[in-house]
């Protein structure tokens, strides 16, 4: 997988032990890591049926919107003093430390989709953990 070199916690119990800043940074890194591969996938799979191509573009847009939303939440958390300002600029592709373009080119479509689903599930879990830490009144 594209992000297999990225250190991520194995299991919910380990993810719950990660400080908020690190968890937020990890979410942003995972989302940033998929930006280029999803764009590349869309550009090089123009032969897909229109509905599949439309779905692929929709997923790419959703990842971009989610990353933008997490960045806005991060800024709000920083302004409220919930997390430090140490995350500024850390979500850039240089900060991910990943060389993903060549690996994305050599993956089969099924491996690509499997890895994307795996990382999407991680992001979803990490966001839930972060939400519970920030707003414990949600009975998490």
Automatic annotation (TrEMBL):
Keyword Secreted attached: yes
UniProt xrefs under Pfam families: Hormone_1
Biological processes, Gene Ontology terms: positive regulation of receptor signaling pathway via JAK-STAT; response to nutrient levels
Superkingdom field: Eukaryota
Xref: Gene3D superfamilies: 1.20.1250.10
The UniProt record lists the keyword Cytoplasm: no
One example GO MF annotation: hormone activity
Keyword entries, A-Z: Hormone, Secreted
Compartments (UniProt record): Secreted
PROSITE patterns xref list: SOMATOTROPIN_1, SOMATOTROPIN_2
Family: Belongs to the somatotropin/prolactin family.
Protein name listed in UniProt: Prolactin
